């Protein structure tokens, strides 16, 4: 039976003309972004490469917390492991750029045996448990004296095989490609039955289980995907900033950045983390050299957004104007007298 017959005056929608046009526009934008190294300056290329890493981190944390209800304060574990594995693979004869790709996959592989234990925890227990995992990973890597000289760290020397221009361009294209693949995979996942299951788990895990949702499996899929994404981000960060220091790469500030970007952009929206990453990038680019005052300003900005825009930038736009550019769910809309969807959300 159609949605119109079951609910007179309402229609269930996912795609609109706006969302179809915006999806096509995203494809065109990706094509244009691929031309940045040959069309724009080296500075722009470097800055966009950094922005793409932030987008990956924001999207992965949002996938965990915004769609699966898994609030982690330990995603720096996989970010640090991504950088570590990239150096480890490179020093053992694997090519530099294959190492960067494989590092993210290895970080995801590490998350698989961890997930059955961590995903049985809920709420604050899960958050603290992930922080403990991050500290254990930090201690393990810090103890690898053959590769990492303790707090001094090490460098990704394999990059020296490339000149500055080639390295910048290759880093840019690889980071853009991985960002597109990860966001595309996340988009497909959230639009699937598994995505609906994740949101049911987020809203009420016990109720979701009662109607047959395999909660541990569903959470495990997004947990591993987020680990792969954060690991890839850690490896890609090392490609642009090739000094690896465990205290920095496993620092909790990375998860703090992820939380800031997801909350500012709009937790539980697909577009929100991208907007949040842009906001964070601008703040860091303009005031990142202010030392402790930068951190104070970042915290103040987070408080202001929480008070004034509690649903984040994009969450507020969706709520007020009913605009959905990249829809991952369904929603009800009012239907006109002619049986066509109206313009206001129901």
Helix and strand element order:
HEHHHHHHEHHHHEHHHHHEE
Separate helix tally: 16
Largest sheet: 3 strands, antiparallel
What is the subunit organization of this protein? single chain
Mean pLDDT across all amino acids: 86
Radius of gyration: 21 Å
Low-pLDDT sequence parts? 1-5, 339-346
Strand arrangement within the widest β-sheet reads 1-4-5
Helix content: 55-70%
Instruction: Choose one word for the global shape.
Output: globular
Class derived from helix and strand content? mainly alpha
CATH class: Mainly Alpha
Strand content: 5-15%
Number of strands: 5
CATH superfamily: ABC transporter involved in vitamin B12 uptake, BtuC
Q: Kindly, what is the distance between the CA atoms of the first and last residues, rounded to a whole number of angstroms?
A: 20 Å
CATH topology description: ABC transporter involved in vitamin B12 uptake, BtuC
Tell me about this structure:
The protein is mainly alpha-helical. The chain has a single domain (38-294), classed as ABC transporter involved in vitamin B12 uptake, BtuC, CATH 1.10.3470.10. It is 70% helix and 5% strand. It has helices at 3-6, 17-33, 36-39, 42-68, 76-91, 96-118, 123-142, 164-191, 193-203, 205-210, 215-240, 246-249, 253-265, 272-287, 292-308, 312-321; strands at 10-13, 154-155, 243-244, 331-335, 341-345. A three-stranded antiparallel sheet has the order 1-4-5, with no helix packed on it. Strands 2-3 form a two-stranded antiparallel ribbon. A hairpin with a 5-residue loop joins strand 4 (331-335) and strand 5. It is globular. It starts with a helix and ends with a strand. Mean pLDDT is 86; it is low at 1-5 and 339-346.
